[in-house]
Design brief:
Helices cover 38% and strands 19% of the residues. With 489 residues, the chain is an alpha/beta fold. Among the domains are: 8-132 and 340-462, nicotinate phosphoribosyltransferase; 222-305, TIM Barrel (Alpha-Beta Barrel). The strands form five sheets. It has a seven-stranded antiparallel β-sheet. A six-stranded parallel β-sheet has the order 7-6-13-12-11-10. α6 packs across α7 and α7 (164-177) packs across α8. It is elongated, with a radius of gyration of 29 Å.
Length: 489
């Protein structure tokens, strides 16, 4: 059953558009064909993900009677809109980039066309569909670039995600964006991706009784430290291979106790595959532990580092401690990300006429017309640059062997294109990433024709020859800006 997944202004505008008072020249605004494009402002680059979420939101749209009654009883009396959405199965047209396509800030990655009354009410569905997936995948991709292709990246964010459904989504899009596995068992089960995790500090803490009633270490005939006992029990319980967490008390002591446990029997040595450091100077401590273990005949161990890691810390650790085998990322993957996508939904056509929002803020000026993103590709398949232009343009990008159009049909009359598996989307993201020579400085511009249309249309929209000065007056203390703006145009 569908929800009222829109803001009140969508409902109020939608209702008004069905009224004769809001007619255009020859039809109700509700029936005018409109196109809205979708982009994001805040991520420098991101795989475009969330298509399956969009489909679910579009399909699950039948509104029940109590919700319709709620609209009808709104103070604006939204009966016309309530009737229109009673079975709001969207039958317009949607274009998107291919799932997993890496796109850049301000580039259109989707658009939707249909009758204004219902099409404008789809805005939140697009924002909900794409915002979290693109934010998560972009963050994961940046971690992957910092860690390098050979190191393991694990999603440890379950406890930071608020609820299991969001946590599964985070695990999904982190995996597609470049992570290898997840600690989230529900996500691993649903997605059929590897699960990772061994023990927490409280495994060692649970053995504190051996501090008061110690076992005797046969090699020294002295009392074992309780942490050594805990490690021995853990290795015995996991004979096929496991990782030991070293910082329950002190990383240096943890390494000593791990080495004592692992060297006590051949079986325990075989079980000891890696170690994890979760606090302190991770690069320095990881390096010291690895050297210490090697000095005591424990070779081939995988150092895994965790502990509030962000992209910059991972990059620094890789430089200082290149032997680091993997990283567990939690808080900075989901709840404390550097930027969110900020997906936006903006009108660009109405009845085949270009339109835009001019705005007083340059960064909020939108694009007019039926848009397209063109990607230039050389003979080796490398990406050379993107141009956002108009769909009827034939764009030439210097040095390219071919130019691809990124916006493709996705939804038409209730049917949608096939969505690849997460494994295929992950492979596609990885393959693309290697085709950018320098993704942080990749050129993406507007075509000359689109720039001219935007500038000319902005000037036309700002021109006001209505003679309002003959009707209205400005208070003395108020800026002359309206008059100056008119004079400039």
């Amino acid at each position: 059953m569908g929800t009222l997944n829109f803001d009140r202004y969508h409902a109020v505008m939608g209702d008004a558009s069905y009224k004769n008072a809001a007619r255009l020249h020859d039809r109700n605004l509700s029936e005018a064909q409109a196109t809205f494009y979708v982009t994001q402002r805040k991520l420098p680059f991101a795989p475009c993900l969330g298509h399956e979420r969009l489909v679910r939101l579009l399909v699950d749209s039948q509104i029940d009677r109590p919700r319709l009654r709620f609209l009808e009883q709104d103070r604006a009396g939204l009966k016309l809109f309530a009737k229109a959405i009673e079975d709001m199965y969207f039958v317009g047209a949607i274009r998107t980039v291919r799932p997993g396509t890496i796109v850049f800030a301000q580039q259109p990655f989707a658009d939707i066309s249909g009758a204004f009354g219902l099409t404008q009410a789809q805005e939140i569905k697009f924002e909900h569909a794409f915002d979290l997936p693109m934010t998560t995948a972009s963050t994961a991709m940046q971690f992957r670039m910092a860690a390098g292709d050979q190191r393991w990246l694990s999603d440890f964010s379950l406890r930071r995600n608020g609820d299991i459904e969001r946590a599964v989504d985070i695990a999904t899009y982190a995996f597609i964006g470049g992570f290898n596995d997840t600690s989230n068992m529900e996500a691993a089960h649903r997605l059929d991706i590897p699960a990772v995790g061994t023990e927490a500090h409280y495994w060692q803490q649970a053995y504190i009784e051996y501090m008061y009633e110690p076992e005797i270490e046969p090699r020294t005939h002295k009392p074992k430290h309780f942490e050594q006992v805990a490690f021995e029990r853990w290795l015995d319980a996991n004979p096929n291979g496991t990782t030991l967490l070293l910082d329950t008390i002190d990383v240096y002591l943890g390494a000593v106790h791990a080495a004592m446990a692992a060297t006590s029997t051949d079986a325990r040595r075989r079980a000891f595959k890696g170690f994890r450091v979760d606090s302190g100077d991770l690069a320095e401590l990881g390096r010291w532990c690895l050297r210490f273990f090697e000095a005591n005949g424990l070779h081939g161990l995988r150092p895994n580092l965790t502990g509030d890691l962000d992209v910059e810390k991972v990059r620094a650790i890789v430089k200082e401690f290149p032997e680091a085998a993997g990283f567990g990322i939690g808080t900075k993957l989901s709840s404390e990300v550097r930027a969110v996508a900020g997906v936006i939904f903006k009108q660009c056509l109405i009845e085949c006429q270009p339109t835009l929002k001019a705005s007083n803020s340059i960064e909020k000026i939108t694009l007019p017309g039926r848009l397209q993103v063109f990607r230039g590709i050389d003979e080796q398949g490398n990406y050379l640059g993107d141009v956002t232009g108009l769909d009827d343009e034939e764009i030439q990008i210097p040095g390219t062997a071919r130019v691809e159009r990124l916006l493709l049909p996705f939804w038409e009359n209730g049917q949608h294109s096939a969505i690849p598996s997460i494994e295929k989307q992950k492979a596609f993201v990885e393959e693309q990433r290697k085709r950018f020579a320098d993704i942080n400085n990749y050129p993406h511009t507007l075509s000359g024709k689109l720039q001219k249309l935007r500038d000319d249309l902005t000037a036309q929209m700002r021109a006001d020859n209505s003679g309002w000065e003959e009707v209205l007056k400005l208070p003395d203390q108020v800026s002359e800006e309206p008059r100056r703006a008119n004079a400039m145009d």
